[in-house]
Each structure stands twice: as structure tokens, then as C-alpha cells.
Amino acid sequence: MRPVRFVALGDSLTEGVGDPADGGWRGWAALLAAALAEHSEDVRFTNLAVSGAQTRDVLERQTPAALELRPDLVSVVVGVNDTLRRTFDIHAVAAHLDQVYAAFARQGATVLTACLPDPGAMLRLPGALARPLARRQRAVNAVVHALSDRHGAVHLHAADGAWIDDRSLWSADRLHPGERGHRQLAVRCHALLAEAGRATGAPPSPEPEFPAPTRTAGLWWLATAGTGWVVRRCNDLLPQLLRLAADELHHRVRGTGARLDLRASAAVSAALASLPETTGAGSRRPRTDQGTAPPESAAGTRRLHGEERAAPPEGGAEGVPVRRFGVGERVVLPEGGAEGVPVRRFGVDERAVLPEGAGETVPAAEAQRRRTATNRTGVPGGACAAAGRSAERTTAITG
């Protein structure tokens, strides 16, 4: 029987940072490899992940080498480093990942993907600094969900859950799992692959082999490697992050913070819509550890398929049919919501849930007239903000 060929692509998470063994790093991918077949010698494992890698690095450097190995299984877990750069561009992230997933799907490999927690929350940054990073990571996760669907990947949802708050699962740097965290990732990936018939060995053990790092070890990391990491991020990301934080505070004071989420959601939709049509296999729905459709993106969006209806937000009305909107038309929000939200074209038979039954569309000029008339009637100033929050709960269709 031919050995199972498993190739791991990505950044420091897949390289194994946080799980030291034999003078180097081991990590979740190595733990998973040993459990893919009944006998570990029947698995050929190659780890091409490199610390600091971004999606472009995976596409241009790691993917060509991996394709030459013709893997049966390839893991592609990357994207956090993109969010930590001033050059962050969700369109580029989507294009890079789409090409990577497609290349392996065409070769017949099973693609394993994962969404990840946002680094701002893990580092416990102040709210104004953490929210822009969280918005970026949610955008990356939304793209990973959609592309996992598009290419039939096996997908692990690891962006939230109890494990995020369990500090015993994380290493001293707070960004990478410790041994217990890496083992949990391996166990969860194994369960998904076993369900898909891609793993036949016994699950990896969740119990650690080595004691957890001491507080002294954590302080030593902060004084050595941690200091260098902080300096690099200060030179690259910090100036832009401060500008994003200022913008965040500006919108928060004005009560228009929902616009930032809507803007991020629109960018994700545009990035996915700009991708070329798939030409080969890989349009299957992914297996995930949630048993449901992909979870919400930056502004509460998720993909709808065929005749599905969106889940009503907070017990709201059932999904209603939508129509194609003309250029310049806007959705009129309920409760005198003066601020129309720009909409995009929807596919045939798709459904959308509008907040509290709002479903009327009018030309932009008419929307402006109604805003003027509403303001003259003395609608409380908070109506626009309330409508914005309602719009944030709206389930949008991503293409």
C-alpha cells in the first residue's frame, strides 16, 4: 500500500512554534501526521511552513514545492500575519488562497483549512487597537470559509470557543498554542479527517508529554524573542494601527461604528466576487466541526446556497425573496432609519433576511426625500444609530 503523503503549509502555527521537541518545534501538524494511518510509518509527512509567512509566501514559495510532492492531504493554515502588516489587503488574501486551494484540488488532494482567533484579543490589546485587528481577522476567516466551500476543503472552525480563554493551552507569547493547544488542534483535525475517511489511525493523545512553561520561561521569552517581535511590529504595523484606532474612536464617538463593519463586509464580498470562476473539482460543501453553514463574517454575513433561507436574526421574520437592485438604489431601513445601506446584486433564487421585515427598495433620490421628511417630523437622533445596528444584524448574501 502506498504511504499517505501529507504536506503542511503555513506560518509559525503550523511550523509548531509553542510546542518544543528534540531541540526544535513539533506542532499540531506533526502530531496529526502520526495519526493519519494505523501505522505511523505508512505516512510521509513534510512540513513546509515558515514563521512569518503570509498568504503570498504560501502561494509563491510553499505551494510549488508541495505540488511536486503530490500530497494526498495538504493543510493550508495562514492569514494572521497578513492582518499584522500595514500592507493588509483582503482582495490579495482572497486571490492568493483561491489559487492555492485550487492548485491542490485540481491535483486531487484533500485540502485542510482552519479559521483562527484574532491576534488583538489574544494579546489583550486595548479596545481601540484590538477592534481593527479583529475586523481584519474576521474578514480573513470569512474568506477562508467561503473558499473552503468553493474548493470542497475539510475546514476546522477554531476562531472562538472555550479553548481561546484557556490560558493553559497557550504559550508564553500568547499568540501560539502551547503543547496542549497544539494537541487539541491535532485532535480536532483528526476527527474531521476521520469523518471524511481521510484518517484511519488512532486519534492523537490530548495529554501533554512535557510540563507547561514556567512563568520565568515566559518572562525570558518576552525579554528576548518577544522584544524583537514587538520592535518589528512597531516599525511595520503600529503607525497604521494607531491611525485605525483613531478612526475607530472617531466613529465610536459619533455612534457610527457599524459602518466600519459594513465596510469590511463589503470588502469581503467584493474580494470574493472578483475571483475567477472555478473550472475543476472543488465546489463541494466543506466538512466542518460545526455541522452548520460557515459562521458569520465581519458584519454577520454568511453564504446561502440554492433555495436556503437565512436564519432570522434574533427571532426576526423568515427570509424574504430579493430582487436585483438597480444602480443607485438603496434599502430603506425600519424605524425611520434615515441612512440607506448600499446594496449589491444578488444571484437568482437567493434569499436575504432584512431587519424587522424591512424590504422596500427605492431610488436613492427618493430615499433622500424621505430622510428630509423624517428629519422634519422630529424623529429622535438615535434612530439612525439604531437602524445601523439593525443593519449590522442583517444577513447579507456573499457571492
Number of domains: 2
Biggest sheet character: 6 strands, parallel
> Would you give the CATH topology of the largest domain?
Rossmann fold
Q: Could you tell me the mean pLDDT?
A: 73
Task: Describe the protein's architecture and organization.
With 399 residues, the protein is of the alpha/beta class. It has two domains: 4-241, 3-Layer(aba) Sandwich (Rossmann fold), CATH 3.40.50.1110; 305-399, no CATH class. It contains 15 helices and 13 strands. The strands form four sheets. Strands 4-1-5-6-7-8 form a six-stranded parallel beta sheet, sandwiched between helices. Strands 11-10-13 form a three-stranded antiparallel beta sheet. It has a two-stranded antiparallel sheet with strand order 2-3. Helix 7 crosses helix 12. The chain is globular and about 65 Å long. The chain starts with a strand and ends in a 6-residue tail after the last helix. Residues 291-362 and 370-399 have low confidence and may be disordered.
